[in-house]
Amino acid sequence: MPRGGARFVIGFLALPVILYLVFVIGPYFQAFYLAFTDWKGFSKPPQWVGFKNFEDLFHNDAFKAAVGHHLLLLLSLPAVTLVIALFFAFLLNMGAGTRGVKGSRFYQAVFFFPQVLAVAVIGVLFQAVYRPDKGGVLNGILDIFGIAPVGWLTQPGLALWALIAVLIWQQVGFYVVLFAAGMSSIPKEVIEAAELDGCTRMGMFFRVTLPLLWDTVQVAWVYLGILAFDGFAIVSTLSVDQGGPDGSTTVLPLEIWRTFRFSKYGVASAMGVALFVLSLLFAVLTLRVTRRERIEYA
Predict the structure, then answer these.
(1) Which pLDDT tens digit goes with each residue over 189-242?
(2) Which of 170, 160, 179 is nearest to 221 (CA)?
(3) What DSSP string runs through 31-78?
(4) Which domain CATH number covers 239?
(5) pTM of the full predicted structure?
(6) How far apart are CA 162 and CA 238, in angstroms?
(7) What DSSP character marks residue 293?
(8) pLDDT by residue (tens digit) across 50-93?
(9) What region does 241 belong to: left with phi over 0, alpha with psi -120 to 50, or beta?
(10) Segments forming the whole domain that contains residue 169
(11) For residue 243, which of 50, 68, 17 has the smallest C-alpha distance?
C-alpha cells in the first residue's frame, strides 16, 4: 500500500463504520438486552428477568402459530419460486438453442415489473383478484364455469396459501432476471458442445445449466428463505384483520409489532431474537447442506 494509504482508507471508512455500528449493530445489542428484561417502555428502569420471556413464548399460541406459518413459507416459497424462475429463465435463454428467444430482454422486463411495485399497490391489486364475490377476478372466472365464489382470504384453510401465491408472484420476476443473466454468461462453446453430443433440452438444463448456476441458486435460496421469515407487509395489507381469519396468516414480524403496541418491549424483543436466530440457523444450514465443489468455466 502506498505511503499514507492506510490513513486514507481509515479516514474514508471511519464515518460509514461508525454509522453502521450506531444504527445497525447498536440496536441489535439493545434488542438482545431488552429480551432478558420486563421493560414496558416507560421511565421505570428495566428489571432483569433472565429467560422468562423466552419461556413464555413456548406457551404463547400466537407465537407458535406464527412459527408454524414460517415453516410452511420456508418449505413452499423458495422451492416454488426457484422452480418457476429457473423454468422461465431457461426458456428465455435457451429455448431456441444457443441464441435464446427473440425479445428476451423485453420479457425479462415484464417479469421484473412486480418487483418494482409498492406493497400498497400489490395489496390493492390482489384485493381485487381475491374479492370474495363474483366481482373478484378469480371468482369471476369460477362463475363462468358455474362454481360458487370462494373466500380466498376469509377461509382459514386458504388464506395463507393465497398470500404465499402473492409472495411468489412478487418475487419470481427478480430471480428470472437473475438466472437469465447467469445463463447468458455461460460460454456458448459449452452449450454447443452439449448439443453436438446429443444432449436434449432436459439434459441440457440438469447436466449443464443447473450445475454452472448452482452458486447463484444457493444464494437465491438463502434470500428467499430469509424472506419467508418476513411477510409482514403482505400479511398486514392483504389479510383479514391483519393476520386473520383467526390468526391463520399471522407471522412473527406482525406479532412483534402487536406486542410492541401493548408496550411489552421485553417480550417483543425476545420474539425478535427468536426470529434472528431462526433466520441465522436457516442461512447457515442451507449453505452447509447445499455446499458443493465449484465448477469453473472460462
Answers:
(1) 777 777 777 777 777 777 778 888 888 888 888 889 888 888 888 888 888 888
(2) 179
(3) HHHHTTB---SSSSPPPB-TTHHHHHHTT-HHHHHHHHHHHHHHHHHH
(4) 1.10.3720.10
(5) 0.83
(6) 10
(7) P
(8) 888 888 888 888 888 999 999 999 899 999 999 999 988 888 87
(9) left
(10) 54-289
(11) 68
Chain CA centroid to CA 182, Å:
20
Radius of gyration of the chain (CA): 24
CA–CA gap between residue 82 and residue 216 (Å, rounded): 11
Q: Which residues pair with 296 in a beta bridge?
A: none
Q: Please report whether residue 82 resides in a domain.
A: yes
Total H helices, total E strands in the chain: 15, 1
pLDDT tens, position by position, 154-202: 888 889 999 999 999 999 989 988 888 888 777 777 777 777 777 777 7
* Contact in structure between 256 and 267 (CB atoms under 8 Å): no
Rounded Cα distance between 93 and 82, Å, is 16
User: How many structural domains does the chain have?
Assistant: 1
Q: Round to whole Å and give the CA distance between 87 and 95.
A: 10
Cβ atoms of 130 and 162 closer than 8 Å: yes
DSSP assignment, residue 209?
Answer: I
- Chain CA centroid to CA 140, Å: 30
Q: 282 CB contacts (<8 Å, ≥6 apart)?
A: 74, 222, 225, 226, 229
Q: Establish if 45 belongs to a structural domain.
A: no
Residue 42 within a domain: no
DSSP symbols for 89-137:
HHHHHHEEEET--TTHHHHHHHHHGGGGS-HHHHHHHHHHHT-SSTTSH
Grid coordinates representing 96? 431456441
Tell me how far apart the alpha carbons of residues 222 and 286 are, in angstroms, rounded to a whole number: 7
48, β-bridge pairs: 37
Q: What's the DSSP call for residue 95?
A: E
C-beta of residue 133 within 8 angstroms of C-beta of residue 230: no
